[in-house]
Amino acid sequence: MKTIKLAIARYNPEQDDKPHLENFHVPYDNQTSLLDALAHIKDVLAPDLAYRSSCRMAICGSCGMMVDGIPRLACKTFLRDYAGAAKVTLEALGNFPIERDLVVDLTHFLECIEALKPYLIGNERKPEDGPNRQTPEQIAKYHQFTHCINCGLCYAACPQFGLNPAFTGPGAISLAYRYNLDSRDNGKNERMQTMNGPEGVWNCTFVGLCSEVCPKHVDPAAAIQQCKVESALDFARSVINCQKEKEVR
Amino acid sequence: MTNTTNNRVDEPVYWVLFGAGGMWSAIFAPAAILIVCFLIPLGVIDGADLFTGLTRFAGSFLGRIFILLMIVLPLWCGMHRIHHCLHDMKARWPGLKGLCYGLAAALSLVALFLVCTF
Amino acid sequence: MATKRKPYIREINSDWWRKQPFYRFYMMRELTAVPAVWFSILLIYGLSALKRGEAAFDCFVHFLANPVVLLVNIVVLMAALLQTTTWFTLAPKVVPLSECMQCRVKLGLWVVTGLATIILLILAF
Q: In the structure, what pLDDT confidence band is assigned to residue A249 with cuts at 50, 70 and 90?
């Protein structure tokens, strides 16, 4: 078996002031994923290495990390693709606070998802009414945005989130947009409040790397631009309504 | 639902101008730059009636509109981008936004004045 | 028991965009704004020269023919072409369209640009 050098940014909050690189030589073949390599390191070389993982098949979204500076899922990254490289540098998922080694604190992302209410709102249907049917066209509108697995790679790819850690961010906005586009939902106005605000869609400058790194081929950059159009229309409506109120007075 | 208006940012205004400017420059800027910066000074376009031709164009109604938009829209697009670029490079001076959009507004007024009085 | 958590927050430097090719390209795309503003100012200068009469306009043309200005304007033209290309790639994403429609819109925008260029050139000659 061939071997490859992995340089992992280690951080132990009880001992270190900042992360430092530690090198590991791991054997690999054509089928070795980065996650397999991390398991090997933890089993054989460094039992104290901390990383998150669960499903090994790009559906749980736990094993996001920076691979040579690009956010990737470890389970979907194969060492064969780095065969010629002198070393592969691993670091905890970008733009989030590092708890330990490759584990980050995703609290902000989770809070943003919660704030944007990603569930059907204002639908009065009861179970007796039967299934709430949708046409294929209605489903096609939001379908791609349902693939999000909340892995946070788009946040790690977003320089605007790095520059402003309060930014709602690509993942949560895509999820909110998914519900705004759903014909069964009536909660758009509630979600637009966050979108219109100082931490909302207007932080985005359409860098576009979020869509490139998404392991599920969601297009968060497009979702945010389309939300900007919605937000701009909302802004125009508020100006017109304000004028009308003045006229009434 | 009570504080929706308080929460808003004024970015949509600049974004719409940026969008219009970006689309306008994408469509017209290459040809305009080719003509003004290369064909005219290099003498490719006949120099004899260049001045009268341009004066007639700048005096016509459509010419005025075109020249105004050709100057103003890319300005707003450009200053919007420069503003965000400086933000990206962590330049956070207090008057930055006012300076960027103020410059765009001032130059727009100059262009409007020139076009109206031509 | 007191917490042993000590989250490490990575500082973003002002040169973050230099580290990845994707970010470098993004910055280049955004900085096409500087030549665009320069061209607008050039047009203001040209228009005011045109208004002041033939002598002033000849002076403007003379300024444009300066080799340094010509060299700068080559960069301006390249920047405008980059802006056109990137704009037509990104703009169709702003409206919800199927992938097939996005390609068509992009093609349509290029056709419009081609027509605009031809019309402007015919007007110029």
A: low
**Angle at C72 (CA atoms; ends C69, C74), nearest 5 degrees:** 110
What domains are there in chain B, each with its CATH number? 11-30+38-117 (1.20.1300.10)
Task: Inform me whether the pLDDT recorded for B1 exceeds 70.
Answer: no
Contact yes or no for B30 and C54 at CB 8 A: no
Q: In what order do the strands lie in the sheet with A20-28?
A: A20-28, A2-10, A88-92, A64-67, A70-73
Shortest alpha-carbon distance between residue A92 and chain B (Å): 23
Instruction: Name chain A contacts of B88, Cβ cutoff 8 Å.
Output: 159, 163, 205
Chain B residues lying within 8 Å of A231, measured CB to CB: 12
- Give the mutation candidate from B17, B36, B64, B68 for the C interface (greatest C CB count, under 10 A): B36
Q: What domains appear along chain C, each with residue ranges and CATH number? A: 18-79 (1.20.1300.10)
Q: What does pTM read for this prediction?
A: 0.93
Contact C116 B28 (CB under 8 A): yes
Measured distance CA(A163)–CA(A184) in Å, rounded: 36
DSSP bridge pairs for C73 = none
Q: pLDDT per residue over C76-88, tens digit each?
A: 999 999 999 999 9
